[in-house]
Amino acid sequence: MYVVTASAGDQQAGCLVGFASQCSIDPPRFMVWISTANRTYGIARRASHLAVHVLRREQRRTAELFGGETGDDLDKFDRVDWWAGEGATPVLADCPAWFVGRVRGLVEGDGDHVGFMLEPVRHGPPPGDGEGPALLRFSDIADISPGHPA
Ligand SMILES: Cc1cc2nc3c(=O)[nH]c(=O)nc-3n(C[C@H](O)[C@H](O)[C@H](O)COP(=O)(O)O)c2cc1C
What's the CA-to-centroid distance between 14 and ligand 1, angstroms? Predict the structure, then answer.
């Protein structure tokens, strides 16, 4: 699972995302799919960059905040530590891995999610030797109901 964040004007947004994948090796590219119903979508459409984070398994509360709540109702960024990366994109503190990607293009498709093609321009430190932390997976949070109907 990923948390994808965006900024446009003086607004921030972010949501939990399962639909995401690396989609090119050279050049490196990564695609995230955001529901047009989400508040995050409207901000992401106006953003120059998006940030993509993975969570440790014990960061369930962060997953609940970004996946089970909508920014239409509360300010998620009042409730987490973050700093502003490229394009003022919120980068969540304390995530085991993250990158900020420049939005290279959109894939509209014909469904209810739109793909954002990202070019990574900055990333967190690579994991050291060893296994690294266990990451939050869909099976860990399958009981969370989306904060915004798709
Ligand atoms: C397990 C799970 C997976 C999700 N995957 C996606 C996804 O791939 N893309 C997406 O746009 N929303 C996805 N969502 C929904 C959003 O994270 C959720 O509706 C969120 O509350 C939207 O917040 P916002 O309105 O502040 O953008 C998922 C939610 C859950 C619980």
Answer: 9
